[in-house]
UniProtKB/TrEMBL annotation:
Organism ancestry: Eukaryota, Fungi, Dikarya, Basidiomycota, Agaricomycotina
Identification of the protein by name: SnoaL-like domain-containing protein
Species of the source: Kwoniella mangroviensis CBS 10435
Amino acid sequence: MPITREYVHEIFEHAKNNEQAEMFRYVRDDVRSMAVNPEIKSSFASGGYTNKLDYQKALSPFGSMFTSPLDISINRILVDGNTAVVELRSEAPGKRTEERYVNYVCMILEFDDHEEPKVKKFHEYLDSAHSQAFYEKNKD
């Protein structure tokens, strides 16, 4: 099945609705991923990952920093062949500081060729300095 903007939007609607398990059903277990810059550990989530579980573990501290789930908006989706680019905006108050966290995320996703395509590779870009500073102020 070819990748469409609607298909990618469906995936990120799960993120928007804080349905992480449903969203990750669209991601292969052996996904190759990079968060921020894998060569420089600029934030707790920075790194390269060779499977879905390792990526989820690396980002698990992220969810515990807020008093409520992230409010995510989908700003833009571009699709070309089996590649999609998604721009998101996320916002939530910090659980210790109540300071408002706002960050923009850009993801480049590559899908496999299966009947129901799954993400086989992605790179996630965000403001790592802001994320790390916010994490230091609001972590458990």
